[in-house]
Amino acid sequence: MDGLTIHEAAETTGWSPRMLRYIERVGLLAMRRSQSGYRLYGPEELQRLRTLRELLRSFDIGLAEIGFALRLRREPELGSAVEAWFETEARRPQDVPADEWLRWEQDKHQALLAATKPTPLEITT
Amino acid sequence: MDGLTIHEAAETTGWSPRMLRYIERVGLLAMRRSQSGYRLYGPEELQRLRTLRELLRSFDIGLAEIGFALRLRREPELGSAVEAWFETEARRPQDVPADEWLRWEQDKHQALLAATKPTPLEITT
DNA sequence: CAAACGTTGACACAGGTGTGGCAAGGTCGG
DNA sequence: CCGACCTTGCCACACCTGTGTCAACGTTTG
Q1: How far apart are CA A69 and CA A112, in angstroms?
Q2: CB contact under 8 A, B68 and A65
Q3: Which residues contact residue B85 at a Cβ distance below 8 angstroms, ignoring those fewer than 6 apart?
Q4: How far is the CA of A43 from the C1' of D16 (A)?
Q5: A74/B94 Cα distance (integer angstroms)
């Protein structure tokens, strides 16, 4: 049996066994299992767990935020849409002649809508 | 008085007045105010609010996630640290000779620690 | 085999999110 | 000036996050 058990892993990573299961439950880490279903923690997992802990602590964030960051990098449309929304903020109406920015705002919105609906009905039969 | 009042804005954006205040409270949008303190909504704000609504709806996310995305782009160290953590996952131990990846794991960790502590004691007197 | 440990599931509880509603008090428009 | 609307608090409530604990049941090991 290569790999530490959950209690051993808990001790060397600073998480509680409870939280190690929770981290897995929320989809951040999928642990290897023994044939009988026991979680097995190897050096890489241990290191990742320590790093994760430090990451959460030093920026005061939660597992949910890491989960969202994961979604951001896995769903490009989501990333683009969020970026688009922020970009809109960056550009202020003073930058453009009064009657231009309204159209520009509208265009931004169009772009975003396009991004949120990646393939509307393109089923490619 | 240029700009709609909160109830008018609510009607044209689909948010409730309650939520418009809440959105401001959590730091996503800082509304202009009239001299007496009334929130004023111009066309750009209205459009941004509609877009935001669509964004949350179509990806089923909350204001908190947008807030975190904002943090990600405002705090580069946070972004790097999260990226570093994900990168570690990308590289699997099969890719490297068994006794190399342990050192590599450790190096990754070092890099991350460096990122989380931008200027340890470098006060540049 | 019995003790120690693992697994999942449930109850619990504090704090955050997303809403609504109500109160007390200031503002605006006719 | 009065009614309609705005502002900020506070109460409320449901659901999610992060933890702990305990139960019921399977596994490993001395």
Answers
A1: 20
A2: yes
A3: A48, A51, A52, A55, A66, B112
A4: 32
A5: 23
**A61/B68 touch (CB, cutoff 8 Å), yes or no:** yes
What is the amino acid identity at position B109?
H
pLDDT at B5 > cutoff 80: yes
How far does the CA of residue A37 sit from the closest CA of chain B (Å)? 22
List C-alpha distances in Å: B63 to A73, B33, B68, B75.
Answer: 18, 22, 9, 18
Closest CA to A85 of B70, B17, B42, B16: B70
* Distance separating alpha carbons of residues A123 and A55, to the nearest angstrom: 42
Residue pair A106/B46 in contact (Cβ under 8 Å)? The answer is: no
Statement: residue A41 has pLDDT above 80:
yes
Radius of gyration of chain A (CA): 22
Q: Which nucleotides of C are covered by protein (CB under 7 A)?
A: 5-8, 16-21, 26-29
Total-model pTM: 0.76
The tens digit of pLDDT for each residue in A48-83 reads 999 999 999 999 999 999 999 999 999 999 999 999
Strand partners, B41: B4
Residue B79 — very low, low, confident or very high, per pLDDT cuts 50/70/90?
very high
